[in-house]
Amino acid sequence: MKKYLTVFVVVICTNSLASIQEQLTYEEAHDLSAKQWKEYKDSNLYRDYFSIWTNFNNQNRIDERGGCYKFGQETVDLVSIQGSDGIIREVITKKDDEKSACFVKAYKGVKFPKPPISPFYHKMQMK
Fold first, then answer.
1. CB atoms within 10 A of CB 34
2. CB burial class (10 A; 0-12, 13-18, 19+) of residue 7?
3. pTM above threshold 0.85
4. Residue 23's pLDDT band (boundaries 50, 70, 90)?
């Protein structure tokens, strides 16, 4: 009985965190990203992770998945929320349009290298 109860509690906590993140507005996610940067920007581990993240993103051409750039010239502002396992759990966009939805689909669920802190907020602009 104890094994089932423990699993049940973990599932409830995980689902609660996910639903809280899904309810964030772009402005809230942006603010969390800015707060995180301000708090950790002087950390070598944090700065190094940005290079690791960017290299992984570029090597795997995540932003090119789905041909999102074909949906126009407007910039898409987004914040990805990455879990401790490296998986992008949520992508929150400033606009709700076809190009934004395409980038959400391209990034959500992708497993990047594990971040130094979690959740890890990563602000991006796609042009």
1. 13
2. exposed
3. no
4. confident
Report helix, strand or coil for 103.
helix
- Which two three-digit tokens encode residue 45? 């581990």
The amino acid at residue 22 is E
Which residue has tokens 């998986």? 87
Q: Give the chain's count of helices (H) and strands (E).
A: 4, 3
The label of the residue with tokens 């950390």 reads 43
Q: Would you state the pLDDT for residue 2?
A: 47
User: Residue 99: which of 79, 76, 122 has the closest Cα?
Assistant: 76
First to last CA, the chain: 53
Whole-number pLDDT of residue 79: 98
**Distance from CA of residue 85 to its chain's centroid?**
12
Q: Report the distance separating Cα 110 and Cα 43, nearest Å.
A: 25
Closest CA to 60 of 110, 120, 117, 5: 110
Residue with tokens 């990455």: 82
